[in-house]
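If you are new to this repository, start here. Below is one unmodified record pulled from the training split, so you can see the exact layout before writing a loader.
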Amino acid sequence: MQNSLTPRYMIIVLILAWAVYALLPTWEYENMSEQKKEELRTSGELEKTESRIIRQGLDLKGGMYIVLEADIPMLVSNLASMKDDRLEDLIENSKNQSIDPNQEFFRVFEENVKTDGIKLSRYYHEYGASLDQIMTALEDEADDAINRVLEILQNRVDQFGVSEPTIQKQGKHRIVVELAGIQDSERARALLQSTALLEFYLVKNIAVTNELITQLDNVLKGDENLATSIKQDTKESKENNKEDGSTTVSELFGDTETDIDQSDQDENTIDDIFLENPFSGLLSAIPGDMGIEDKNLYAFKKLLDRKEVRSTLENANGQFLLSNQAETIVANAPEKYYRLYYLEKRPELTGGIVDEARADLGSLGGGSAGQPVVSLSMNSEGSRTWSRVTGANVGERIAIVLDQKVHMAPSIREKIPGGRTQIEGFADLNEAKDLAIILRAGALPAPVNIIEERIVGPSLGADSISQGTQAVLIGLASVLVFMLVYYKLAGTVADFALVWNILLVLAVLASLQATLTLPGIAGLILTVGMSIDANVIIFERIREELRKGKTPKAAIDSGYDRALTTIIDANVTTLIASLVLYQFGTGPIKGFATVLFWGILISMFTAVFITRTIFSAYVSNRTLTKLSI
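And here is the target side for that same chain:
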């Protein structure tokens, strides 16, 4: 008899060893000091440890809860093959009239198109000829965009290193993101919202830029209201630095042939400059470029938004873009400037050609030695285009633009055939790493806006863990005591199986890298009750057999055989219910269903296999006439 139980003993020992192995990292992690965690994080070992522990959900660990909404009007604008003020105004008006931009925008937009009489086929000819065809295609593009946003955000967050994030659609064009245990909320927010549209634009030469600025001055000249507005926005900064205030168009590009005496400049002369040169009057000469003082940024953007300026830039096939951050030009001076670039309207390359993006520190011997950089390698198509563009524009500058902000605009020294380049100018290595993540994961097809954000404090999570653990322990203790009192020795066997059940469920969660949430703890408590239920059925069957006069060994065998069908029927229906909850539920429901499924499955194993092995071992070498049950 003992030999026949040996395989059972081996199975139980192997499962016990596996459970200890699976739970040991969690035990070590929970008892690890913050200093030790920081050491492991620095060495890169902490991520390996965290991949083997029982992860805690947002409701237990704290973190961020964010609702994102895709900017569908912006997507519709970006999809247009040609743009003009009429289309842009129509989209903007439709957006403002929409009660709920996610649901009603297309209906309002369609009505406005009919009222205005505009022909959409002029702007969206690739989507069809009729209005119905175009509207259907645009709605399909919007649906596809939100699905791609969902996938891209999942890729970004996975690489960011958040434990078991929850990212799911809510309604038609909204996405809910839960990031448990997040420490740097600003970094996470930037990572989620950044569209990461990487583009490479040629910078227009000095002569063309000079001519365009002169045209803009002429277009805006004579508008006294405009001049007054500009003077009000810029007066303070120009009074602090009159030399900058008197800068002419020629001086911006290094032409010193000017008869303006800087030292004699006074407020009236400054006023005359803004009245005569309303555009160039806002510009300042900074080393290597022209710039906008940060105090004048608002006024400058208002100028760019005027219809006559937009029309002039459209006709010139160009655009103005600013650097990604302001910089101090003169040491210890309070003034900061954004570099201003006049670029071609169409990019030479976009981020779709990026094969690999890696953040690192610049190598020794280069201009970026020791500074954070992002190294890019391009696919075959991108490499060919990059080689052609750099070869045809040696000596010219090319701007590397991210989300409509210029990160850098280096001069092309020689043809670059290998499809490789670097992006510089990051505040720290984390910023470079985040950009590399975004470029690898892809650019968002539509901008997303945060419409709801909640920070769940770790103290709330700690309370949830404490109360949940307390509930499990109280429920477990009550069941253990009841079984021990009511079923005596057999109750001890059931208690042993119950403790095994909980340990095995936790081991499975750790192995699957599942997340334990508050509903998951509820599922664990329910598992305790379901596990004991199977033992109660078996023990009552054994009692019936003993009352019929059978020996303990025969009663045990008969009790387990007769109870097996009932246990399977009862538990299989619960397993099916848990699978349905997991398939169609979201977030907390899935957490509950996961714990319940594995809890029920394991309870069947412990109740039928482990307890029977214990009983069989107990009666195998004894001649019992009575069983304590």
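Two things worth knowing about this chain: Confidence is low (pLDDT under 50) at residues 236-267. The first strand starts at residue 55 and ends at 56.
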